[in-house]
Amino acid sequence: MNTPAELKYTKSHEWVRVEADGTVTVGITDHAQEALGDIVFLELPEAGRTVAAGEECAVVESVKAASDIYAPLGGEIVAANDDAVDAPESVNADAYATWLFKLKPDNLADADALLDAAAYTAIAGAD
Amino acid sequence: MSQHTPLHAAHLAAGARMVDFAGWDMPVNYGSQIEEHHAVRSDAGMFDVSHMLALDLTGEGATAYLRTLLANDVAKLGTLGKALYSCMLNDAGGVIDDLIVYYFAANHFRIVVNAGTADKDVAWMRKQIAALGANVTLDARRDLAMIAVQGPNARAKTWHAIPGSEAASVGLKPFFGAELGDMLIARTGYTGEDGFEITLPAANATDTWNALIAAGVAPCGLGARDTLRLEAGMNLYGQDMDEDTSPLDAGLAWTVDFKDPGRNFIGRAALEAAPASRQVLGLILEDRGVLRAHQTVFTEHGEGETTSGSFSPTLQKAIAFARLPLGVEAGDAVEVDIRGKRLKARAVKLPFARHGKALV
After folding, report:
1. Using the 8-state DSSP alphabet, how is residue B178 labeled?
2. Which residue of A34, A60, A64, A69 to mutate against B (max B Cβ within 10 Å)?
């Protein structure tokens, strides 16, 4: 399982990268893309939308199934990855290079409570 | 504890992603289900379908029994190896299962039923044997494995892989089978492509599977099997019809044979009392998104519902089967509710694709 040590993770299989500007970048993990199979459609949140932690805010659809993506932290959506919408298969090709949206958290310190790579690997490995 | 087919170890060795399907641990893909789909449309792929149950029906009363048990008429067979697709109905005209029956002789048929319904099918068949006092014997053949080899190059690659198979099967027309030793090679399938479904002793399954891989046949999982059958306009039991669905409402009127007025098959009276109230058409989504089962369809003639949906690798668009009000026609613009949004779709005739080509 590919789980980069510098990222944070959620139990619902999102990865989170804390950026220098105080925003976070969010995608789905390599484990998640493999479980979903060939991804063919992404529905991403619009910039400006306010989301609560744990709120459904995007949908990733593979040939097999639709899967909800949850906001890892509360805050405001500041960007969505339109290139990924045009090429959903890039999530399968590299789940960590293909971010889905960027979020300005209400409280960046909440990111400290997200899972680290070891904790996520333990959870995902038990799936 | 899930059941394993004779090819289970071969799937694990090939790196398959396994899922539970009707109590069986089956491969959903071996990497990319889209690549497996394209392999079948453009070359040759194979599926382990050993979870399906083969049954042998023998005895003097076999033909008469099947003419009552099944909605299609086995009197159409009568040629060695000929196959027939049929629904098996309950008294209310609902579909207990859909199946394939092969004719070996007037007193010997082979029946292949779905995995998820196998137990209830056998119970129903035995109940009808008793009720009709039929002079037949029904044997479940869990000693057999089944491999479906499908695609434009499927036959040639099978002939290369299985010694003697070319001579045995080169003359087979579609929907006919031939025996080769203890193997049955039938020119049937569930993908809309040419190919064979091969039934063979479980003990020989892995060697044959490996010989087919060596001949260039790609192992394919249930994921690709589902998108291939969807493109080919073929129903999936439990999704597109079930015990509460009339075959006349499920796009299967062509499989119900009313011609012989003296043939009182189970469910006939119910079907004659309740003609089709819905029709099945295909949908192609024009907006971006993916169609799935149980989405509401809005038409000028009222609402309908999708029964199966996915992304079509051949069309590169989302497609679905939809049960729609009578009056909707192919070409009509409709809308589909996807997560609360109404997206534009178009009704089309089935199938969407066959023999490597998009048809819509």
Report:
1. E
2. A64
B25 — phi, psi (to 5°)?
A: -85, 105
Q: What whole-number percentage of chain B has pLDDT above 70?
A: 100
Domain boundaries, chain B: 8-48+143-231, 277-358
Structural domain that includes position A48: 8-106
CATH number for the domain harbouring residue A59:
2.40.50.100
The CA distances from residue B354 to B58, B232, B300, B335, B347, in Å, are 35, 6, 30, 26, 18
Return d(Cα A93, Cα A50) in angstroms, integer. Answer: 30
Query: Which residue, chain included where needed, has tokens 């199979």?
Result: A37
Are A85 and A105 in contact by the 8 Å Cβ rule? The answer is no
| A119 domain residue, yes or no | no
**A116 part of a folded domain:** no
How does residue B235 score in pLDDT terms, banded at 50, 70 and 90? very high
Within-domain flag for A111: no
* CATH assignment, B277-358: 2.40.30.110
Q: Is omega for the bond preceding B351 within 30 degrees of 0, making it cis?
A: yes
CA neighbor of B232 nearest in space, from B278, B200, B198, B195? B195
Q: State the total domains in chain A.
A: 1
Q: How far apart are CA B45 and CA B153, in angstroms?
A: 9
Interface contact A116, partner B, CB < 8 A: no
- Highest CATH level, class, for B8-48+143-231: alpha beta
Which residues share a beta bridge with A88? Answer: none
CB pairs under 8 A between A and B: 37
* Span B302-348, pLDDT tens digits: 999 999 999 999 999 999 999 999 999 999 999 999 999 999 999 99
| Contact between B335 and B347 (Cβ < 8 Å) | no
Looking at the partner chain, which of B33, B288, B339 has a beta carbon nearest the beta carbon of A38? B33
State phi, psi for B205 to the nearest 5 degrees: -65, -45
Question: A15 pairs with which residues across the strands?
Answer: A9, A27
How far the first Cα of chain B sits from its last, in Å, is 43
**Residues of chain A neighbouring B288 (CB-CB closer than 8 A):** 41
pTM: 0.95
Q: Enumerate the residues of chain B whose CB falls inside 8 A of the CB of residue A60.
A: none
Using DSSP's 3-state secondary structure scheme, residue A12 falls into coil
Q: Is residue A112 part of a domain?
A: no
Is A5 within 8 Å of A96 (Cβ atoms)?
A: no
